[in-house]
Amino acid sequence: MNLRFFTTVCVEMKSFLLFIYVVFV
How many angstroms separate the CA atoms of 9 and 11, rounded? Predict the structure, then answer.
């Protein structure tokens, strides 16, 4: 797996989880 790809996925997941947190809280 490419490190850059992994970093991008990690950042997107964090953004997605933050969005869910804001919506439900």
Answer: 5
